[in-house]
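Chains adopt folds. We examine one example:
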Amino acid sequence: MRRAGQAALSALGGGVIVFALLIAAPGDPARRILNVRGIEEPDPSQVAAVRTELGLDQPVPVRFLDWFAGLFRGELGFSWRTGNPVASEFAARLPATIILTAAALLIAVVLALTLGILAGWRPRGWADHFSRALSTVALAFPTYLIGVLLLDLVAVRLGWGRVIADGTWDTVFLPAFTLALASAAVWSRVLRSALLDLDAAGFLRVSTARGASALRNMFVHRLPNALPPFLTVVGLGAATLVGGAPIAETVFSWPGVGKYTIEAITARDMPVVTAFTMIAVLAYVGMSLLVDLLVMIIDPRQQAGRP
């Protein structure tokens, strides 16, 4: 209950920051909306009418409470470009983003487990050096550059996959791999470190003395005990995949919420931008709470506050 209360306060704090940035954005929202509607030089009465329509004439605390309450009702406002509800615009593109995020999470977990176990199996061996080198390369290149290189090499030169994705499972691998690579590099290093910290554990010496093989020690004793820190970074990283989706979606023309948000940023469509930002905040807070609860279940010592 204490952790749930902290999560609620974090979400509220995130909402305050997002709303403050919305208010601090330069320009008059009423004038922007009128410009989008084709009125280049609106008169003061038109501006005042739109401000009343948007509730901009209300005090800031009242506007914040209305905006935050609308989030819980699923009301994310109206797009300044299209005039449609932001919630309906997101709902139409959400399936594609879910497919991309789920595929990226699966690829990242598989890669991280593989690289982390290889690195932790024989420290300073060839597998460890290969895993760390691959992780370093993945972290050194930005996501958009990896996406462009994969498009040029795999889709254009080799003819595998499509240059323009259609938002289905058939074309998800390249954008999902691009989105997953950096996360997998970080997660594999965390797993490797957790596995190496267990090398001197007493239960491993006892298990080895009883004749347990290296394979059994790894998958029965070392890996389960290394999972709590690994699950923590995976859970938090899964939420950051949502925030990183716009880059991968834009590079591969993936028809998801992220690409739509990038277009909104270009057009200064603030309701869409703030709605996506708040969704990313809530996803991060929610995944953080979920991971904490899972770690408590896996490691009961956490419930008693013991290290």
Summary: The chain is about 75% helix and 0% strand. The radius of gyration is 24 Å. Residues 103 and 173 are 7 Å apart (CA to CA). Residues 214-251 form the longest helix (38 residues).
